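Changelog note: in this version the structure field was regenerated for every chain. One regenerated record is shown below for reference.
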Amino acid sequence: MIWQWVRGELLKITAEMIGCDGCREAGQQWVRRTLLAATVINPPTAGIALEMMARAIEAKTQPIERTIVAPSSFPVIEKLAGTVLRANQGVS
């Protein structure tokens, strides 16, 4: 539940909100505190970048132009789907 001042009046915002800051100290905590319904977690990329650079130096080649990492949902999609179904059925 989120409260916000709008034109001098404190209103409860009932719309579910999602975030894109899946850091443990921010986005994930906000989900746990129910400030957000969900957030997106992007995996760390520093290790991947260092491995790519080491391979490129060793092989004396350029690293590939793009590397795609798979984001994940917090909480997991299956849990979110259950939440949506319960909300649509009027169950909390």
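Spot check on this record: The mean pLDDT is 81. Residues 46-59 form the longest helix (14 residues).
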